[in-house]
């Protein structure tokens, strides 16, 4: 994406008729994960705004978008695949002040004046440009840095390189299983086997860890098990699955005991007030 191009483009307000056709659930696309309105109406300050979630800080704010007409494909009616119009949309989060931009594609070839006049066109795609994707939920600060650092980096690079993300996550999972679950083998597949046979995890987590081997097709790619940090091809959904599994493991291992302890402390205070002995 040539950002300079978008900065040079003249600001135009997007017409009311340009509504998204179908929201996508892809994290990198704008429908679904963050509800975006049809944008600024004629004169963006007059338009009604909707609440949206900022992809930088995850806070909710009133979105006000500026649309910059970028250009269009062919006007040839015989070539529907190239009859497109592209618009860069920009919005500043009122909570964190950071800029959000998306590249919106319309079905149909519109000149800038047609676009500004509100000629009907359907939105067929809406992709984040800044930031490149919706971030994952921030990790609670109780997660020790020795695990959190790899996880955070794996989350950051997910949109650009699922391969690099998966390598960081595998390395992180291996380190966690070694340090916290007593799985000392040098191979991740054997560590997972160790954890599954020794127990200690609720069944949904055991299944999630087991699925790391299957989703990543360790049988066909033993290097993923032998050299976890190696950057090699990933299966569809593998990088996301690794992050999801790590997040669940961290929650189970670090967060749930803290929450339980807080509830026990609260109960002990009540028991003390009632003149009864604390829980053992
Ligand atoms: Zn923000």
Protein described:
Mean pLDDT is about 80; it is low at about 1-45. The protein has about 280 residues and is of the alpha+beta class. Helix 4 crosses helix 5 (about 190-200) and helix 4 packs across helix 8 (about 240-275). The strands form 2 sheets. It has a 5-stranded antiparallel sheet. It has 2 domains: about 5-130, no CATH class; about 145-255, no CATH class. It has 8 helices and 7 strands. Bound molecules: zinc ion (ZN). Zinc ion binds near residues 59, 93, 95 and 96.
**Structural class, from helix and strand content?**
alpha+beta
Rg, rounded, reads 24 Å
The rough form would be described as flat
Structural domain tally? 2
Q: Number of helical runs?
A: 8
Q: Helical content, roughly?
A: 25-40%
Element-level helix/strand string: HEEEEEEHEHHHHHH
Largest sheet features: 5 strands, antiparallel
Features:
single chain, 280 residues, alpha+beta, two-stranded antiparallel sheet, 8 helices, disordered N terminus, binds zinc ion
Map the helices and strands.
Elements: H1 3-8, E1 11-12, E2 51-53, E3 60-62, E4 66-72, E5 84-92, E6 99-107, H2 112-116, E7 122-130, H3 145-157, H4 162-181, H5 188-198, H6 203-215, H7 223-226, H8 238-273
Antiparallel strand pairs: 1-4, 2-3, 4-5, 5-6, 6-7
The protein binds zinc ion.
């Amino acid at each position: 994406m040539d950002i300079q191009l978008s900065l040079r483009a003249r600001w135009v307000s997007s017409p009311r008729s340009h509504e998204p056709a179908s929201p996508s659930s892809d994290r990198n696309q704008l429908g679904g994960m963050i509800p975006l309105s049809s944008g600024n109406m004629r004169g963006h300050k007059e338009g009604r705004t909707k609440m949206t979630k900022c992809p930088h800080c995850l806070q909710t704010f009133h979105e006000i978008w500026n649309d910059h007409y970028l250009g269009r494909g062919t006007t040839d009616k015989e070539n529907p695949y190239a009859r497109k119009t592209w618009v860069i949309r920009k919005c500043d989060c009122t909570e964190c002040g950071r800029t959000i931009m998306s590249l919106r594609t319309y079905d149909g070839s519109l000149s800038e004046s047609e676009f500004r006049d509100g000629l009907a066109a359907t939105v067929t795609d809406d992709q984040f440009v800044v930031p490149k994707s919706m971030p994952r939920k921030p990790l609670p600060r109780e997660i020790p840095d020795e695990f959190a650092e790899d996880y955070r980096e794996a989350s950051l690079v997910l949109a650009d390189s699922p391969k690099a993300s998966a390598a960081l996550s595998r390395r992180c999972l291996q380190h966690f299983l070694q340090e916290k679950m007593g799985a000392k083998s040098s191979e991740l597949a054997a560590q997972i086997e160790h954890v599954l046979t020794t127990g200690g995890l609720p069944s949904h987590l055991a299944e999630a860890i087991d699925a790391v081997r299957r989703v990543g097709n360790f049988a066909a790619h033993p290097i993923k098990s032998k050299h976890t940090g190696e950057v090699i091809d990933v299966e569809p959904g593998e990088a996301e699955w690794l992050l999801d599994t790590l997040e669940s493991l961290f929650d189970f291992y670090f967060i749930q005991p803290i929450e339980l302890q807080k509830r026990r402390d609260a109960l002990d205070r009540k028991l003390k007030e009632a003149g009864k002995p604390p829980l053992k």
